[in-house]
Design a protein that fits this description.
Layout: H1 2-24, H2 29-39
Length: about 40
Amino acid sequence: MANVIRRLFITLLPLIYMGMIWLQSSYPIQTIKQFLGVLK
């Protein structure tokens, strides 16, 4: 079970890292708010 969690973490880590870079990049906050609005 721990092996699965570790593999999942290793898989998700780059995605989280990319997300952090995306949030810190030049995209405006409005775009993120609109995106979250669409998800809801």
